[in-house]
Write a structure and sequence with these properties.
The complex is a heterodimer of chains A (265) and B (481). Chain A is α+β, with helices and mostly antiparallel strands and 265 residues long. Chain A has helices at 4-30, 51-62, 91-99, 108-120, 134-137, 170-173, 177-185, 187-190, 235-245, and strands at 36-37, 44-45, 77-86, 124-132, 203-207, 229-233. The chains are: A alpha+beta (265), B mainly alpha (481).
Chain lengths: 265, 481
């Protein structure tokens, strides 16, 4: 490195390489990504969020929810489980066999093996595929998050820290709009040990008119407004809650398969 | 000594040319440092009392925390580093700063950008991309200001009297190219009306953030340290072969880091990033060898002065790099990602490494440039102890919190609330660190501002003297010519 030119060239090559790798290549590989289909259906994935939910993403961004929450589920692998759907005409033998077999957390071969054994004596089974990993076991999702899940988000809010639970599937986990609003207004009202800050400023304290407003929050006593007043969500709060309810990454995809729970079960 | 600085007549010219630009850069930086640590403290208090300042949207956690981090990075580290770089370029070139007015303008543009950016975040205008939160207007100002300073630095470099290149040159010169490239790329894609589709956004953002925080700050901090270590120890920089290895491997491997293993992106991206992160052991060791060989055996006592700061800064660099590599090991990476561990690394990189090196450099160069001793010289020792204690008390609990949190979250039988409260126990200790750092930063700012005021008073006095005795001055100037 005797001259400025050689430093310049080294720097240019080094940074240019990673620019091609981590900026250009992802733009080419993913920049034109389109909807995919949900496994074994003709449904498209992901769906556009509703208008309110799209606005809610901006409330989420502006208030930095991603400073404490991630929106991504990880999985470590997959496991198979074998479910008995019908014992056939030899129930005693089947139940005898089943009590000696491992039926969950299987590899593909083990599952096929169990399947063959049970079918041989007349039982009928269904083999199901499940994702594994701590995030899944926590109930944060049924499968890992994949690139397709974020197709329509501007900006994508993956987050970097889990000071709060993952929210990739909060719309599945807590689908009640009123619960979401209550939690935003006073996290401690639904979760006494919560360390999430309250987002009171997304709500309005209003004098009760002739009758209580239909969307006023139903708060426990210690969180309620003074007598004669009520707490009403501002439009931002409603939008944010709509966004939270729209957070669902619960459809099986080619790159993240699992067997959805069938209605029969 | 590393630079063959022949203490010639141009010494005073160099100092004259640097005085105004450096005061403009350092003054604002000191202010933002205090501001950043103050906002950080507010964010930290939220983990003791979640509803502290809760009614005020300006100070909600999700706004204060990124605003605080950005103030430390964009408000303090970058402008202060640019100031020190200008000084080093002028010294190594043995020529006064080229276009000295340009960096003065740039400094003001930069600080205006930081102000607008911080206000933007607090008012809810963040872009939502980690480390790139500043809204468009602020980003444009920062970019323009950086380019102006880079032009002045490059011109100083181009017009140098002293032709040979030193290892410091490599690092600092690369840093001048690095920032405009990554910052413009990131902003063109992520601060635009129409963002790229889906996860391309976080991928670009991770690339940018890691290139800024780990590579850019690394280049600048090590470049500055490689200038000062020989100066303090009174002998040349040891083994420039290792320095070259350190430089090349830092730019070639460091630039690929940053994509977390659990990211929902095509698998080749995090895999490549993970390998690169492990390979950063090479620059780390090479730089460690150079630093140790240069300093060891030279009997210099540091006694709370600039040398102490730079030494601790280099130790922090190694430790921060070690944490980074540890977190990249496949058996830990999935446990440590998305925990406080990442915050610990970044805080160490910003406050333990970069800030320490910059404090040391500024305490050394400011008296030279201003031609007068530090007005509150006694404060530097106290500042040193507060900075070290603060960084330790901030980073160690965060590391512990991250490990505990990661382990508990990886075990699904532990409830989320329990994992959280186990981490919070440690996290709350780190508030003490934030307090110590804040106190230290006040001492630093006091020195810079006292220096500025003394200097302005000095100018005022000269002007008054001049007005009072026009005859005498006229005479002397005649004699001179």
């Amino acid at each position: 490195m005797k001259t400025g030119i050689s430093v310049f060239v080294a720097t240019f090559v080094a940074l240019g390489a990673s620019w091609c790798g981590f900026v250009l290549a992802p733009l080419l590989q993913l920049g034109g990504a389109k909807q995919t289909v949900v496994l074994q259906t003709t449904d498209n994935w992901p769906l556009q969020r509703t208008g309110a939910a799209t606005l809610g993403l901006q409330v989420y961004r502006a208030n930095g929810c991603a400073a404490c929450h991630t929106e991504l589920v990880r999985q470590t692998g997959v496991a198979f489980e074998v479910l008995l759907t019908s014992a056939g005409n030899n129930p005693a033998a089947v139940s005898n066999l089943i009590s000696n077999l491992k039926l969950a957390g299987l590899t593909k071969e083990e599952a096929d093996d169990a399947n063959a054994k049970i079918t041989a004596i007349g039982g009928k089974v269904e083999t199901r595929l499940t994702a594994t990993g701590a995030d899944i076991a926590r109930g944060w999702g049924l499968r890992q998050s994949v690139a397709a899940d974020y197709l329509y988000d501007q900006p994508v809010q993956l987050g970097s820290l889990r000071a709060g639970p993952d929210l990739a599937n909060i719309g599945v986990r807590a689908p009640d709009l009123n619960w979401q609003l209550l939690h935003l207004y006073a996290p401690k009202a639904v979760n006494p040990n919560s360390t999430m800050p309250s987002f009171k400023f997304l709500f309005e304290v209003r004098k009760i008119g002739n009758a209580p407003a239909p969307d006023a929050l139903h708060l426990p006593k210690e969180f309620a407004a003074a007598d004669g007043y009520e707490i009403v969500p501002k439009p931002e709060a409603i939008e944010l809650a709509a966004y939270l309810l729209s957070l669902k990454a619960n459809q099986p995809l080619y790159e993240a398969p699992f067997s959805p729970v069938t209605a029969a079960k | 000594m590393n630079p063959t600085e022949n203490k010639t007549s141009c010494e005073s010219e160099i100092n004259d040319s640097l005085r105004v630009p450096l005061l403009a850069l350092f003054g604002g930086a000191a202010l933002w440092l205090v501001g950043g640590l103050l906002l950080g403290l507010i964010a930290g208090i939220k983990f003791h009392a979640p509803d502290f300042l809760g009614g005020c949207p300006l100070f909600t956690y999700g706004r204060v925390a990124p605003a605080a981090n950005d103030l430390l990075l964009y408000g303090f580290c970058i402008p202060a580093a640019l100031g020190v770089m200008l000084w080093i370029f002028a010294r190594l070139s043995q020529s006064p700063l080229a276009l000295p007015l340009v960096p003065v303008v740039a400094a003001h543009l930069w600080h205006l950008g930081v102000f607008i950016g911080t206000a933007g975040i607090l008012l809810g205008g963040s872009t939502g991309h980690l480390w790139l939160e500043y809204p468009r207007a602020a980003a444009v100002l920062l970019f323009a200001a950086f380019l102006l300073i880079a032009v002045s630095a490059a011109a100083t470099f181009g017009w140098r009297q002293e032709k040979s290149l030193y290892p410091s040159h490599w690092f600092l010169f690369a840093a001048l190219l690095w920032f405009p490239w990554i910052y413009s790329t990131a902003n063109l894609f992520l601060n635009a009306h129409q963002l790229p589709r889906g996860v391309v956004q976080p991928i670009i953002c991770w690339w940018f953030a890691s290139n800024l925080i780990f590579v850019w700050l690394g280049l600048v901090g090590v470049g500055i340290a490689f200038y000062f270590l020989p100066k303090f120890s009174g002998r040349p920089l040891a083994s420039s072969g290792y320095a070259l290895l350190g430089f090349l491997s830092l730019v070639f491997f460091g630039t690929w880091c940053g994509i977390p293993p659990g990211a929902p992106v095509p698998a080749w991206l995090p895999a490549l990033s993970g390998v690169a992160a492990l390979l950063t052991i090479i620059p780390l060791l090479a730089i460690l060898i150079v630093a140790v060989k240069t300093v060891c055996g030279a009997s210099v006592s540091c006694n709370g002065g600039p040398f102490c700061f730079i030494k601790i800064g280099m130790i922090s660099f190694i430790v921060a790099g070690g944490l980074y590599i540890a977190a990249a090991c496949p058996q830990y990476s999935r446990v440590l990602e998305f925990t406080w561990f990442g915050a610990a690394q970044v805080q160490l990189q910003l406050l333990g490494f970069t800030a320490m090196i910059l404090f040391g450099a500024i305490y050394f160069l400011l008296p030279q440039v201003m031609g007068r001793p530090l007005p509150l010289a006694k404060f530097t020792k106290l500042h040193f102890f507060l900075s070290v204690a603060g960084a330790l008390l901030l980073v160690v609990p965060l590391v512990a919190a991250g490990i505990v949190q990661g382990e508990k979250l990886a075990d699904a039988s532990v409830a989320f609330a329990d994992a959280n409260s186990a981490a919070l126990k440690f996290l709350r200790i780190s508030t003490l660190g934030q307090l110590a750092l804040l106190a230290g930063s006040l001492l630093f700012a006091a020195n810079i501002f006292a220096m500025t005021i003394q200097w302005k008073l000095g100018i005022a006095r000269t002007v008054i003297d001049y007005i009072k005795s026009p005859l005498a001055t006229a005479k002397t100037s005649e004699v001179k010519s």
